[in-house]
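Would you mind giving me a polypeptide sequence along with per-residue structure tokens?
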Amino acid sequence: MNQRTAAIALAVLSLAGASPLWAADKVELTTRVSGVVEAVLVKPGQRVKKGTVLLRLDRTVLRARLDEAKAEYARAQADEADAKREQGRAQELYDRTVSSTSELEAATLRYARARAALSAAQARRVIAQKDLADAELKAPFDGVVNAVPGGPGTVVAADCQPKPLVILDPDQR
């Protein structure tokens, strides 16, 4: 099919209110994170709605990483609060001409580093939360499960061109 024919077909489908996807289109789905498939929740031929959980990876390691990130964030919060108090105290002593400029600068630098560490810890916590959420493969659109090549125990290496775990056809009705 040339580009002009394809454009006309798309225009006709959109005028008819149909999806621009053809019945032959299949979407190979996998997870964004690495892990081991714990459970497959669908079967070939099953109709699914957008957002339906199709399969789930073992989340033990991902939960541990989230717990670690939360603990790191709590520590960074405490460090930042302590550095802020120290910076305020150093400023007060400097204003009363009791301490030197270098002591104030050191306290200000420690506070800036603590704020940066807190920001980085927050980012790691958000990433860990997203990774845990992405351990569930969800249908990106209404469709019909074509095949489930990834069963329980399948190892997913997300960094190395992971194989498809579920193949989904767009729902054409």
Q: What stands out?
A: The longest strand covers residues 35-40.
